[in-house]
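S2.1 Query sequence (TolC family protein)
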Amino acid sequence: MRYIYSLVFIALAASVFGQDNKWSLQECIDYAMKNNIAIKTSELQTQISEYSKTQAKLDLLPSLNASGTHGYNWGQTIDPFTNQFATRRVRTNSVGISSQVTLFGGFQKLNQIKKSEYDYKAAKASADQQKNDVALSIANFYVNVLFAQDLLEIAENQLEISQLQKDRIKKLVEVGQLPKSNLLDAESQLALDEATMVQRENDLALAYLSLYQVLQLQPDMKIEVEEPELLEVSSSFLSQNPLEIYKTAVENLPQIKASEFQVKSAEKSLDIAQGAALPSITARTSYGSGYSGNNRVLRSDADPTLAIDTIGIVANSMEEVVAPRIEFQDSDFRTKNFSDQLNDNINYSVSFSLVIPLFNGYGARTAVKQQRLNAQISNYQLQQTKNTLLQDIERAYADAKASLKSYEAAKKSKDAAEEAFKYADIRYTQNLINQVEFSNAKVRLSNALLELSRSKFDFIFKVKVLEFYKGEQISF
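Output structure tokens follow.
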């Protein structure tokens, strides 16, 4: 019954993993490069830095602004367009266009351009680092799937051996050459191997689940990893020592480039802060006009009143000296046309301003000190990144050497266990050893095979890590 249950489980697993959709490691990495959320986010951050870089260059251009106002004045005020004293409500309008450009600003804008370029390069390198991290993580889970598949194959082989052994013992028991207890022991071993295979199926399912999660596959997507044709175990990585690998990594790995660009960006931030303490020169020009409701002219159809005013008396004759006076009513005037006023009130201006910072609460000096410290911090962070990289390479190199030794030892152990099991199988069939001794030989062989598989895939992945540090593409 347990054997039937195991076969049913295998069939169900085959429906999950037996898809005609095999992906190589490179295909898995390519999918993640296009769909991973962290990678997409880092690419958007790179675009933001690119926009900032472009804007820093555009900030060198003059500003150009148009303006317009519409308002009313009440009470006693001087009309700005007629220069007359007004006591009633006056409507005013003004329109204009102005431009301003910084002729000298302590080289702040030029340094800002350089800083934004370094920020963009740092963001781009950080995005590349994110891609490398994801690729390395995928390679790790991909190898775990291969390892789980190898363990399942070992379990299937062990189950097949136990099944054949049970069938053979059953025939010998039936003809009376072996006691029935041997058959019961064989059935017990078969049941244990069936349980082991079920566990290996579960391990494979979990390994696939981890790979799906790191790939961020859609729930309805199922893939099967493509097993490489040949996974060689070679000591060729020993041709370079850790220091040589480190020198190559420093030249190629994006996390080092990102830290270097961050140092340069911090240095430009210091230059910008120092520029704030220098004088600045600004040029400004404007063109405008306006309208006033107090700007009134005589109507063409005005009907003035003629009056005579006495302006003096002749001394001898006492005759009055008179003069004509023309009187106008308020209705004889109209507000000057809007378009005429705009043409008449046109004004231009050009100005230059010089600002010399004398005292601002030591703000500029404090900013310089802060940016100088930030530059030092960036240098320390770069050095720390390099130190961490060297330590990681030294550890990876040592791990790879240890894994190679473990693999070589496991290979010898496997060969010895196979030979021992071969003789144990013969002796058990001849009833020269008991079931316990036979099971021990079989367990030793199973453990040797498991250790050989574990050490092989562990070594392969650690060598891939070293190849990654050398700037090589992660692939099988």
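The chain is about 60% helix and 15% strand. The longest helix spans residues 108-174.
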